[in-house]
């Protein structure tokens, strides 16, 4: 069956999330936790494992790319390393996209969660995943990218700059509705105190504050102009902001689901029984105050006594 016929068969809009992000950012854990959370809300869910290197999955995948191709086979037969093998697998999946579309036919009544590989080149410049998503979007799928980045990068200003650039690059490359998420927020200060209040990292509004911090750094201080220009670039695009997530927190899971549903249009769809006008309006209007986005995490996980936090707060934030 070719892709055109499948487009015709998929007359219903199918909603879901493409869960992406660097290795270890929590994608697989999120897919498991979110699938349980959604089932608890009464939704039918299918988790699709698109990472051919994923072993010991904590969830039962409805579709598993490993039944099409595995990294071990590719590495052995193609004499490739793990990274090259993974890239080959994604190119193979792109060529065999009809396999995936046919498999998805069995889950037309489900909300879909796609658990993706962690190689960042797949999101920053390699084209296979973007093309796979593009074919799916044209075939009647409405997906939002949920881009997870480990929140411990907030503790280091230099690393936070690279997270900002990675997120912006990924948004531009993937060309789809997108939300950025700082994962493992319960561990946010495990590797050191934050220099600013949490909303500095989630709202991404005044990045010039970071330039000053970077200038204090013995190595990065030499590149003040360069860092300033990079941060201006992120600010000028005005596209990057973050939501906080700890999978143990129902409030966080609910908030991330709400924004993902708003991004993929699930909340505006017409074929789900549990939708109501209040849900739709509150989601459409973004009814939560910004502070509610971080209040739960701040109370539970972040100490508020650091010098910078006080300084930042005293500037009216
Ligand atoms: N404390 C904490 N750990 C998490 C959270 N999410 C994921 N992890 C841990 O992060 C590690 C990497 O997660 P995994 O889902 O395998 O990352 P992936 O490579 O992006 O799929 C695992 O040990 C998870 O238990 C979270 O919200 N809080
Ligand atoms: Mg994984």
From TrEMBL:
GO cellular-component term (any): cytoplasm
**Entry GO MF terms:** GTP binding; GTPase activity
Signal sequence range = 1-21
The record's listing under Gene3D superfamilies reads: P-loop containing nucleotide triphosphate hydrolases
Assembly: Heterodimers with GPN1 or GPN3. Binds to RNA polymerase II (RNAPII).
Q: Which family does it belong to?
A: Belongs to the GPN-loop GTPase family.
Name of the protein in its database record: GPN-loop GTPase 2
Please tell me the species this chain comes from.
Answer: Oedothorax gibbosus
């Amino acid at each position: 069956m070719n892709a055109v016929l499948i487009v015709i068969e998929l007359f219903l809009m199918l909603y879901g999330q493409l869960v992406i992000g660097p290795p270890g950012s929590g994608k697989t854990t999120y897919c498991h936790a979110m699938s349980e959370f959604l089932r608890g809300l009464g939704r039918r869910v299918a988790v699709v494992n698109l990472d051919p290197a994923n072993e010991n999955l904590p969830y039962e995948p409805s579709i598993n790319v490993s039944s099409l191709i595995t990294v071990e086979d590719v590495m052995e037969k193609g004499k490739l390393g793990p990274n090259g093998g993974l890239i080959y697998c994604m190119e193979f999946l792109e060529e065999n996209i009809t396999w995936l579309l046919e498999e998805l036919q069995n889950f037309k009544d489900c909300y879909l969660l796609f658990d993706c590989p962690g190689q960042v080149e797949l999101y920053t410049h390699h084209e296979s995943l973007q093309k796979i998503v593009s074919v799916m979007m044209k075939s009647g799928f409405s997906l939002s990218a949920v881009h997870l980045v480990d929140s411990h990068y907030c503790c280091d200003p230099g690393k936070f700059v690279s997270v900002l650039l990675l997120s912006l690059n990924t948004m531009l490359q993937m060309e789809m509705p997108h939300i950025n998420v700082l994962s493992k927020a319960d561990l946010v200060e495990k590797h050191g105190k934050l220099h600013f209040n949490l909303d500095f990292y989630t709202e991404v509004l005044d990045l010039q504050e970071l330039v000053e911090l970077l200038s204090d750094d013995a190595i990065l201080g030499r590149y003040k102009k360069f860092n300033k220009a990079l941060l201006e670039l992120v600010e000028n695009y005005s596209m990057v902001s973050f939501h906080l997530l700890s999978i143990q927190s129902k409030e966080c899971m609910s908030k991330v689901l709400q924004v993902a549903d708003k991004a993929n249009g699930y909340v505006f769809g017409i074929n789900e029984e549990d939708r109501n006008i209040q849900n739709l309006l509150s989601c459409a209007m973004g009814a939560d105050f910004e502070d509610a986005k971080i209040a739960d995490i701040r109370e539970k996980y972040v100490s508020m006594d650091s010098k910078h936090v006080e300084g930042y707060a005293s500037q009216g934030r």
